[in-house]
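Structure first, sequence second, as always.
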C-alpha cells in the first residue's frame, strides 16, 4: 500500500529538478502522475522513469503562463483520469539584478511564471476540487519569501506574493475540503543551479524537497501543513537578512 494510492497528481515544471523529484516520490507511493512543463523532451524522459515505478503517467506539455494551455491541461486530466487530487505548482523562473538596472521585461517574466502561472493552475484546480469536495494544492516557494538575497527583487517579490496566494487559496478552499500549502526550499541542486553556483554554499538534492512535499500530500484530508521550510543545516539563513 502506497501513501498516495488512487490519487491523481499534477506536477508542473515536472521535467527536471524539484518537480521531477516530487513526481518520482509521488509515483513510488502509488499516485497517477500528470507531468506538465514546456519542454516535451524532458517530460518524456521523466515519464519513462515514472512508468518504471509502475505509475500511470500522462504527459501534457504546458506553458503555465498561457491561459488556454492551462485550461486544456485540466480538461484533459479530468477527461482521462476523472479527477485531480493534488496539484503541485512547481514551475518557476529566476532573474534579477540591481533594482535601478532592472528591465520591465525581466520583472514581468518572473511574475508571469511564479505568480500568474500559479494563479491560473490554482483557479482551474479549484473548479475541479470544489466539485469533488476535496483536494490539495502545494505551492513551491523559496526561503527568499522570508529572507531575500541582494539583487533578486523580482524573485523575492514573487515568492512573497506566493505566500499570500497560498493563504487566500487555503481560506477559500477550506469549506470545500481543499487544503493549500507552501513549501519553501533552501539551496537545492538542479539543472539550472549547480553546487558551485554560489561558491561553497551547502546544497540539498531535489529528493530531499520531495520528501517534504510527500509529507504534505499524504496528510489526512482534515489536516494541512500550511507552510514548511527545508534547507541545509549549514546554510546561512537565520540572520542572513
Amino acid at each position: 500500500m502506497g501513501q498516495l494510492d488512487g490519487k491523481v497528481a499534477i506536477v508542473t515544471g515536472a521535467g527536471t529538478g524539484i518537480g521531477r523529484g516530487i513526481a518520482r516520490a509521488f509515483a513510488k507511493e502509488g499516485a497517477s502522475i500528470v507531468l506538465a512543463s514546456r519542454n516535451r523532451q524532458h517530460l518524456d524522459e521523466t515519464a519513462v522513469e515514472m512508468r518504471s515505478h509502475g505509475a500511470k503517467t500522462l504527459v501534457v506539455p504546458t506553458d503555465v503562463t498561457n491561459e488556454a494551455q492551462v485550461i486544456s491541461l485540466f480538461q484533459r486530466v479530468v477527461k482521462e483520469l476523472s479527477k485531480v487530487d493534488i496539484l503541485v505548482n512547481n514551475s518557476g523562473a529566476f532573474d534579477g539584478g540591481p533594482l535601478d538596472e532592472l528591465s520591465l521585461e525581466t520583472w514581468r517574466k518572473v511574475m508571469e511564471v511564479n505568480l500568474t502561472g500559479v494563479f491560473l493552475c490554482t483557479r482551474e484546480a479549484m473548479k475541479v476540487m470544489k466539485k469533488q469536495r476535496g483536494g490539495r494544492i502545494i505551492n513551491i516557494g523559496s526561503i527568499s519569501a522570508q529572507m531575500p538575497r541582494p539583487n533578486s527583487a523580482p524573485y523575492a517579490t514573487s515568492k512573497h506574493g506566493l505566500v499570500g496566494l497560498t493563504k487566500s487559496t487555503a481560506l477559500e478552499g477550506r469549506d470545500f475540503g481543499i487544503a493549500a500549502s507552501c513549501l519553501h526550499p533552501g539551496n537545492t541542486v538542479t539543472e539550472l543551479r549547480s553546487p558551485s553556483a554560489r561558491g561553497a554554499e551547502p546544497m540539498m538534492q531535489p529528493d530531499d524537497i520531495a520528501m517534504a512535499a510527500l509529507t504534505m500530500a499524504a496528510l489526512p484530508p482534515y489536516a494541512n501543513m500550511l507552510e514548511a521550510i527545508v534547507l541545509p543545516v549549514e546554510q546561512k539563513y537565520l540572520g542572513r537578512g
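Margin note: The chain has a mean pLDDT of 93.
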